[in-house]
Amino acid sequence: MTGPLIPPGPLAHGSELNAVYAIARIVAETFDTEAGLDAIFRLARTIFIFDTVALYLQNDESSEPEPTYARALGRGRAREADLTWGEPAAREAYRSGQTVLRQEDAGPTVAGRERRRDYLGLPLIAGGRGVGGLVFGRFGGPAYPSEHIRLAEFVAWHVGQLLENRRMARRIATLEAQRELARMQDEFVSTVSHELRTPLGFIKGYTTTLLRGDAEWDNDNRVEFLKIIDEEADRLRELIDNLLDSSRLESGTLSMTLEPVRLGALIKDTASRAGALYPQMKLEVDVPDDLPILQGDATRLAQVLDNLLSNADKYAGGSPVSVQARREGPAIVVRVCDQGPGIPPEHQSHLFERFYRVPGAKSMIRGTGLGLYICRKIVEAHNGEIKVECPPGGGTCFVFTLPVEAPEIPA
Ligand code: ADP
Predict the structure, then answer these.
(1) Which fold has domain 188-251?
(2) Of 79, 351, 376, 402, which sits with the fewest C-beta atoms within 10 Å of its C-beta?
(3) Domain 259-403 fold
(4) Is-contact 396 337, C-beta < 8 A?
């Protein structure tokens, strides 16, 4: 079959001309292949008669075309189109690259006009290569006349174009996804190397200073340097833990150990640890004694609270911080609020994304933008939700909800 780039002629009716132009327009404008095929075949049926149409496409280069689309549009339309009926004509057209006409007698068991079947098989070409076959079926004759065959070839050529458009659209989407992945990997490597280098720089610098043979350090200086080295080593470990958690969360390999958790006690423990870690923090804890026990991973839930409190210290230093927990219906709701600068509304929906940091906000504060992402993943693993609220009066509240899973274990 040659490519009928121009509508087949001679065109007897204006309606044929309208239909072929409409088919060409669909190919140029439609991105939804299935809807495009439906529209093309509906239009095709206004210019030549067929009862069934089916598309057989190769899944990969080595395979035979498989049935992928079928419609019964004619008098047999009450029944679902049977995808196997046109297969021999489709395969022959695909192999030979030629239009194929087949006539079959379905035998005496088939009553009425459906006994005689005329199949018109056409090769499908997309991107200059045979990709399958298109078959029109007609029951009860007459055989396809030559002008109908030309119209069918015109339709097949445009179906090939539609398939080529789909292939190109998928290719572009894949390339864009690959480019985005490469961009994220580059960003990841530069964020991570910067974040790892900073504490390492301190550790190396202060260790070299302490080891210098030409300088004498008094005890206070030595203790101060060692403290810095100790803190930076902690930070390095925290960073590596966060990076590992985050990549395990992405690959779905972070394991959770669910056990009965007394959330009230867990909050009080975490808060008292935070009190020691951040002595300047004015921390208030408000947790009722009768909070139900829930099923959860205590270490991971403590990690969520640790992270929210560490953020309150970093971004709202010196402000009062409150941790409150309440039973609300089938869930426990925990609120960690500070009275710091708050978070501009346009950044709030991105906060829980991997590596997201509010641009410019306290840029000298170190971080990777992984903490809140890890919090979200942990809370979601408990079937809960986490969100941020910034009250009009200022400050930031992180609110997470954990369902109390049945059966409830009595306290
Ligand atoms: P990191 O602290 O490492 O940057 P997080 O994921 O914990 O990463 O936090 C993401 C961003 O959210 C922070 O960079 C900061 O801009 C903002 N943020 C988090 N907590 C607060 C808070 N309590 N007050 C103001 N901004 C906050």
Answers:
(1) Helix Hairpins (1.10.287)
(2) 79
(3) Heat Shock Protein 90 (3.30.565)
(4) yes
